[in-house]
Amino acid sequence: MWAADGALLRLRLPGGRIRGDRLAALVPIVERFATNGVLVTRRAKLELRGVEAPTAATAALDAAGWLETPTHERVPDIVVSGTPVCGGEATDARTLGHRLHDALAARPPETSLADKFLIAIDAGGVLGVAAVHADIRLDRLGARDWRIAVGGTRATATPVARVHGDADAAGCAAQLVRGVAERFGTQRLRTLTPAERTALTAELLGPLPAHIERPLAESDRFIGYDPALGHVLSFVFGHVPAAALALLAAAAGPDEIAVLPDRRLVVPELSAGRCRELRTLGAIVTVADPRAGLAACVGRAGCAQATTDTRGDALALAHAMPEMASAGLHVSGCRKGCAGRRASPVTLTARDGRYDVIRDGPPDGVVEAQGLTRSQVCTWLSRNDQSGERR
Ligand code: SF4
Fold first, then answer.
1. What's the whole-number mean pLDDT along residues 278-283?
2. Is the Cβ–Cβ distance between 109 and 74 less than 8 Å?
3. Percent of the chain, pLDDT > 70?
4. Is the model's pLDDT at 60 over the cut of 80?
5. CA–CA dist 43, 45 (Å, integer)
């Protein structure tokens, strides 16, 4: 695939995990071929960016065992939450993810699914994936049961089944995936109405239960150190330079690093010295870092629709107004909102080289101030935050 900064090569991580020593083997390939390092994607993949010799880079990845077999390539993307922290007997989302992957690899759908078809497995907690908009979701209910739902986030998906145990949950989800492929081919489930979704799943899974309880409550996004989890960190806009990749690999050694679809990484051990070095390389290691609240699309650096330097402006605003950025600032190159379509406390949507300001809304939300430069945005937000006035 190609992007504005050259070719890109995307790598899937089974179960959203990678061992430190396997990551270390990837570092020389990144250093040699990926001029812009690695991007952690919103599907918990690693994307080599700015690849100058894609054929040679692909051969190097193949030699290092990174390429999937054609059978495994046909398995849709599965994102899983991090280590369960919700108490009770731990039912690990990763175990279920492996079971489901194996079930689909053993008997892949006979017809193609949508390119971006996504399955999310969420055990909840501070490393959960509640906000992921998936075609099929498996959300944990208590210690051993799973809710199967289609077409949305944990809050918006349509519940269709309650299943006991990992094996049954994996079997049920695999059956649903195959059925969806046969019935709807490349159509996304999010495009179906709730009534169409329930009719479809009733046909594929049998009569729906009268009541399916709600999954465990969502937790706030966590970044920092927790003895039960390890070090949870992220990188500004998901970009991990090769030097940071090498540090992470050395820190994890034979242990695994978890990669989450909101671009957070969970590293088991990290010395204070390594933590400092990672910060200088763009790591966000505490939620107090105002950059933790930023979202921005690639902007004019990589998209013909954009007229502003979205990421540069987001970083400058985080520096100038850290509290506002910490609360959540989305700088979007246009109303499409490629970095996220959810509401943010402050969203700036570019238009003709300037910004429209939206508060508590998505990039195509209700505009409160139009056509401001970056410095005018600061002034407007300061004045309106203090007075509480709205235009
Ligand atoms: S949000 Fe608009 S400007 Fe930004 S990457 Fe998407 S299409 Fe391009």
1. 94
2. yes
3. 94
4. yes
5. 6
* Residues spanned by the domain of 58: 2-65+229-287
Q: Separation of 302 CA from ligand 1 center, angstroms? A: 9
Q: Structurally, how many domains does the chain consist of? A: 3
Q: What's the alpha-carbon Rg for the chain, to the nearest Å? A: 21
- The residue to mutate among 298, 307, 349, having the most atoms of ligand 1 within 8 angstroms of its beta carbon, is 298
Tell which residue, 181, 189, 184, 201, has the closest CA to residue 74: 181
Distance CA 295, CA 332 (A): 8
Residue 385 has pLDDT above 70, yes or no: yes
363 and 259 fall within a common domain: no
Of 253, 271, 287, the position where a domain reaches its end is: 287
pTM, whole model, 2 decimals?
Answer: 0.86
Residue 62 — pLDDT band, cuts 50, 70, 90?
very high
Decide if 117 contacts 77 (C-beta within 8 A). Answer: yes
- Per-residue confidence (pLDDT) for residue 216, from 0 to 100: 63
| pLDDT tens string 337-384 | 998 888 999 999 999 999 999 999 999 999 999 999 999 999 999 998
Q: Are 280 and 247 in contact (CB under 8 A)?
A: no
- Decide whether any atom of ligand 1 lies within 6 Å of the 15 Cβ: no
Instruction: Report the candidate in 43, 61, 77, 44 with the shortest Cα–Cα distance to residue 7.
Output: 61
